[in-house]
Write a structure and sequence with these properties.
- Strand 1 and strand 2 (16-21) form a beta hairpin.
- The protein has six helices and six strands; from the N terminus they run E-E-H-E-E-H-E-E-H-H-H-H.
- The chain has helices at 22-30, 76-82, 119-125, 130-133, 146-153, 156-160, and strands at residues 6-10, 16-21, 34-46, 51-60, 96-99, 114-117.
- The two termini are 25 Å apart.
- The protein is elongated, with a radius of gyration of 20 Å.
- The chain has a four-stranded mixed β-sheet with strand order 2-1-4-3, with helices on both faces. It has a two-stranded antiparallel sheet with strand order 5-6.
- The chain is α+β, with helices and mostly antiparallel strands and 170 residues long.
């Protein structure tokens, strides 16, 4: 069992809160601080006196008050995940983040000023706006909600296996 599995943590009210390692998820379940809402089919963790399903989604037993999050925190990884690792200029695999208004011209690290880009298009655009470089955006950048950003950050296989009843856009 690899220790890098991600487990989605829901508040007692079923709101997505965070992702944790498999180890942390099992500890929360063993301490009765959380219950397994969805497990990996057929996978179990066994110890001397206990057997636990491998959790994919856990829900906290008690409600945790979380400060209101208006915006999802911007990150390079978040932009790549939001854009599904597809270049906003050509549609090929993206590995870099491009600033629509370059940082040297006052553009900042924000959801609406950054898009995923392939290395070639990032170099071709260089220190110019897409219009100046004669390049067209295939998709417009948008700001994901905090819950959408959290779910999008999950590994693709985990995201695809989330239960439909969560009502999250995957």
């Amino acid at each position: 069992m690899d220790g890098k599995r991600e487990t989605l943590v829901l508040n007692a009210s079923f709101e997505p809160l965070a992702t944790v390692s498999l180890r942390r998820a099992v500890v929360l379940v063993m301490q009765d601080k959380a219950v397994v809402e969805q497990a990996h089919p057929g996978l179990r963790i066994r110890a001397a006196a206990v057997e636990v399903p491998v959790p994919r989604v856990i829900r906290l037993s008690r409600y945790v008050r979380v400060p209101f999050r208006r915006q999802a925190a911007w990150s390079r990884r978040g932009v790549l995940v939001r854009d599904q690792h597809r270049c906003a200029y050509c549609g090929r695999r993206a590995t870099t983040v491009d600033h629509i208004v370059p940082r040297s011209r006052g553009g900042g690290d924000s959801w609406l000023n950054t898009v995923a880009s392939c290395v070639e298009d990032n170099h071709r655009k260089a220190d110019r706006t897409p219009e100046q470089a004669g390049m067209r955006l295939l998709t417009r950048p948008f700001e994901p909600t905090p819950a959408d950003a959290l779910v999008a950050a999950l590994a693709g296989s985990v995201r695809e296996e989330l239960p439909e009843w969560l009502g999250l856009s995957a």
